[in-house]
Prior knowledge:
It contains five helices and four strands, in the order H-H-H-E-E-E-H-E-H. The protein is an alpha+beta fold.
Amino acid sequence: MVGTFMYLTASRPDLTFDVCMCAWYQAKTIEKHLHDVKRIFKYLKGTVNRGLWYPKDSSIALTAYANADHAGFQDTRRSTFECMQLLGERLVSWSSKRQKSTVISSTKAEYITLSGCCSQVLWIRSQLTDYGLGFNKIPMYCDNKSATALCCNNVQHS
């Protein structure tokens, strides 16, 4: 049942947290977890018309935006990165996390952010191919020209 819910979260982001918690305890299930799964079914029954809806006349273009603040966290001097992905005009994914490492320049902070955002875009693109949508070029926007130049230069990195 949880596997079915995991597939459903692609179009129902409101279920993601609850389904992930059920999947967490799937190996050692107790009766309480079965009640939680039943509650998800009851919720689905009452919210059939909810989800991500895209009218036929809306544009289906995947776009990504990434940003980082260099050394924004005062205690550890780590940067925080934010990225979001839009499908047409609708937000389908976003994240805001503190980077695991300390970097010495805003270019490196933005580059790490672009890397994480790119991996999320690739995952979304693979999910959308299940729905018959294919994307050749997906624009990613970043406000740091040095990080953009570093991404475009294949000689500087592997």
